[in-house]
Design goal:
The protein is α/β, with parallel strands linked by helices. The chain has twelve helices and twelve strands. It is globular and about 55 Å long.
């Protein structure tokens, strides 16, 4: 059995996978509250006592972590140095990791970082045009997001050099990967750069921040909250709902329709920028929480690539695979596909492959 852990400030989600003949036999999900972290770690360890290995998804590794690592005392010391970069998340994660190492005993605990793949971004894609005196260690850089999804999307096309990867999740990101290494990523130093989300604004003129402060009289901190928590789909529609739920009303509500038009436009623009940097993709792969619900939107986005010789199957597309649905005809110059895996299932696939390579 292999276990995948995902933790936020309130809970830990445990997904366990039993494998036989290279096929997932059973998958179970458990939620454990972090209200009492000591009790939580004991409860997790009990559920994982028959595991071959455990992998925990960590959101931020900065420039320090470029690959999965076993959690040990050396790892803990290195990870502690990132507290100032992620002060709300890392301290409680450190507590959990320290307790889990003790409780799991001989069962290896691996850390898998969402940002590790983006340590390989070209330098010109990571830095900002800020004064040289500000370009020091810890200065604003693109650290990336959705590295797990983007890495898996690229791995699904092992014989193709260039893959355009689009992740439709709580935050939508676009990346081009060449030979498995990222060339671009749409998200910047914070989630405000890139594509709008349920609550954040996405790309905008930085001067708007100062304009909003001037006309509203609000503090910098209030404007920061507005841009991160009260913009995006919530700001445009006035409805606090998940993106897939909003999409069900796209044909009956003008504000929702307008929000999705902007969302679609931003995705297409970032795809265009990525292709301009990296050249014509050989495959386009969509993944993320909302791919199934947003299939009509995905169809419209893919139609923008027909000038490259992309030939789509008629819609509605049947889900012909348990993990990857190819939606292009056999004569298409570019392969387009939609992944149906959840994040835990995606990380499980990556982690299982990683363990098999280590055994060889």
């Amino acid at each position: 059995m292999i276990a995948i852990l995902d933790q936020n400030l309130k809970k830990v989600e445990i997904n366990t996978f039993d494998v036989g003949d290279n096929q997932v036999i059973t998958k179970q999900t458990h939620i454990v509250s972090l209200e009492n972290i000591s009790r939580c770690s004991i409860e997790i360890a009990k559920k994982l006592k028959t595991s071959e290995a455990v992998c925990i998804r960590l959101r931020f590794g900065g420039d320090l972590f470029d690959k999965p690592l076993i959690v040990d005392s050396q790892f803990i010391t290195k990870y502690e140095s990132l507290i100032s970069s992620y002060p709300f998340y890392i301290p409680i994660t450190l507590q959990l990791l320290k307790l889990l190492v003790v409780e799991l005993g001989s069962i290896p605990l691996y850390a898998w970082f969402e940002t590790s793949i983006f340590t390989k971004l070209p330098e010109e894609e990571r830095i900002y045009a800020l004064p040289n005196q500000l370009q020091s260690a810890g200065s604003p850089r693109r650290f990336g997001c959705h590295g797990i999804y983007h890495a898996w999307n690229a791995q699904q096309m092992p014989n193709l050099t260039t893959v355009l990867s689009i992740v439709m999740d709580k935050q939508t990101t676009v990346s081009v990967l060449r030979n498995g290494k990222p060339r671009t990523i749409s998200m910047g130093y914070t989630p405000l750069e890139g594509i709008m989300s349920r609550t954040s604004c996405g790309d905008m003129d930085p001067g708007i921040v100062f304009h909003l402060m001037r006309v509203s009289g609000e503090s910098f901190f209030k404007i920061d909250e507005v841009l991160k928590k009260n913009s995006g789909f919530i700001g445009l529609t006035g409805i606090d709902a998940e993106i897939d739920e909003l999409f069900k009303q796209v044909n009956s509500d003008h504000a929702i329709a307008q929000a999705f038009e902007l969302y679609e436009s931003q995705i297409i623009r970032h795809c265009g920028e990525a292709v301009a940097v990296s050249g014509e993709p050989q495959a386009i792969v969509f993944s993320g929480k909302y791919t199934s619900a947003l299939t009509p939107l995905i169809f419209r986005i893919l139609k923008k690539f027909t000038f490259l010789g992309l030939s789509l199957k008629p819609v509605p597309w049947a889900n012909t695979s348990t993990h990857l649905n190819i939606v292009t005809e056999g004569n298409s110059n570019i392969i387009a596909a939609i992944s149906m895996f959840s994040l835990p299932e995606t990380l499980y696939q990556l982690f299982d492959s990683y363990l098999k390579r280590k055994r060889v």
